[in-house]
Amino acid sequence: MKLTAGITLAFLAASTVASPTWPTWPPFGGKPKYHKGIPYAEGSKFMLDGKPFLFAGSNAYWLPFINNPSDVRNALTQAKHAGLKVMRTWAFNDKNATYIPGGLPMYGGEGAGESPIYFQSFKDGVATINYGPNGLQALDKVVKIAEETGIKLVMALTNNWADYGGMDVYTVNLGGKYHDDFFHSPKIVNAFKKYTAAVVSRYKDSPAIFAWELSNEPRCGADGTRNLPRSAGTNCSHVMVTDWIADMGKFIKGIDKKHMVTWGGEGEFYEEGNEDWAYAGADGGHFYNELALQEMDFGTFHLYPDWWDKTAEWANKWVADHGKAQVKLNKPVLFEEYGWLHPEDRLAFVNRTVPANQTRVAVIGEWQKIALQYKMSDAYWQLGVCGLSTGCNHNDGFTIYLNNTEESRPLIFQHAKDVAKVNSRL
Ligand SMILES: *[C@@H]1O[C@H](CO)[C@@H](O)[C@H](O)[C@H]1NC(C)=O
Ligand SMILES: *[C@@H]1O[C@H](CO)[C@@H](O)[C@H](O)[C@H]1NC(C)=O
Ligand SMILES: *[C@@H]1O[C@H](CO)[C@@H](O)[C@H](O)[C@H]1NC(C)=O
Ligand SMILES: *[C@@H]1O[C@H](CO)[C@@H](O)[C@H](O)[C@H]1NC(C)=O
Ligand SMILES: *[C@@H]1O[C@H](CO)[C@@H](O)[C@H](O)[C@H]1NC(C)=O
């Protein structure tokens, strides 16, 4: 999601951790069908150790930045006990070595500015990857705790939006002018590949990695205030973005042949003549072409009717239409982020109201039901846990807290059980 509100972070001193090593598989040599503990795709299914792996999951982008291993362990353990199997998090945090007030992109407002953790910094046109204790070693800890907890991680490698730096940090530092220069300027593409290689090679054997994700929500354009502008005309389209996805997918598979790769898009369709932007490829999406790429192991889509000015009925169709794509292309599609606001937040954020019976439990529950009918795995935005050293994690309006049983009983605990039941019959 495009983050709009900050999070409060607390920091503890770092402890050291060695990179994990894992046995190779299979023990008898030959080309492995799969690698022990590492999820893969087979037809329209996710698989794990030879069995179907349909899952309920969630998002916790903040795991690497709280810099507190016991809180990470606590959060992942609570998630696991709730029946959640996969968490999506941020494996990026890019910044300038020196923050220029008023400069672009406007990162830092989301709470990252307060965290000592960052993974890459730019100075005088040179990117430096931070391998230190306040750099990738902090991510090592999250991966290690995920291994120990048995939670799998979707690892996003950059951001379309300004939160935690993302694409525009590369672009402003490497001679680009437009947001979409990220997809084609050779210098920028190479810098992103360099960062990608550093992260992917670090965990290429880890069973904690569910998949590599090129970016959170890659688009031709971004935020009108906090990001660089999109280039004029039709230069950026689904052709440019799809080429970039294919090229990056190939690059990652050259480093890591075990883990899946996806692109992290919101699921925009491209239908000639369709007047609905979400079906017209307005921002460089072409769901069927992207999903069809041999370099992509599965597809993703997101859903925020409140931000998108869409109705609950529209949203139901959006879920079903992605389920149909999973069936048609016989490749898994992950319902990767979704949220529906409380009435008071909706009024405050977007000044809208909806019928009173469209509660979070009713509307989100319906999406989950449809996703499950199509046998799609899902990950709601976002995990809400209490009992951390800082109390509960931040509520951005979409957070579903595990201890808010009115919501969590149907949408998390019962849903995870329903998903497990369907999985056991696959
Ligand atoms: C980052 O650095 C670039 C290059 O000096 C500059 O153009 C940009 O405004 C800076 N942005 C921030 C937020 O510091
Ligand atoms: C348009 O996109 C192509 C790559 O597809 C790129 O080479 C070219 O520089 C872009 N032009 C502008 C004005 O951004
Ligand atoms: C919210 O919308 C109502 C109309 O639906 C309007 O009268 C009001 O001015 C709006 N409030 C804000 C803060 O934009
Ligand atoms: C809300 O009520 C309307 C009509 O009374 C009904 O058509 C609709 O399905 C209900 N929506 C939910 C989410 O229950
Ligand atoms: C969840 O736990 C936190 C902290 O322990 C508490 O402040 C909050 O009221 C609880 N929420 C509910 C719905 O019980």
Automatic annotation (TrEMBL):
Using the record's annotation, list all stretches that form the Glycoside hydrolase family domain. 196-341
A Pfam family: GH5_mannosidase
* Molecular function terms, GO-annotated: mannan endo-1,4-beta-mannosidase activity
In the UniProt record, the signal sequence range is 1-18
**What Enzyme Commission number(s) appear in the record?**
3.2.1.78
| InterPro entries associated with the record | GH (IPR017853), Glyco_hydro_5 (IPR001547), MAN-like (IPR045053)
Per the record, what are the reactions this protein catalyses? Answer: Random hydrolysis of (1->4)-beta-D-mannosidic linkages in mannans, galactomannans and glucomannans
What are the UniProt keywords, alphabetically?
A: Glycosidase, Hydrolase, Signal
- Going by the record, the broad EC class of this enzyme is hydrolase
GO BP terms: namely:
mannan catabolic process
The highest taxon in the source lineage is Eukaryota
Family statement = Belongs to the glycosyl hydrolase 5 (cellulase A) family.
Write down the PANTHER family for this protein, in alphabetical order: MANNAN ENDO-1,4-BETA-MANNOSIDASE C, PTHR31451
The protein depicted here goes by the name mannan endo-1,4-beta-mannosidase
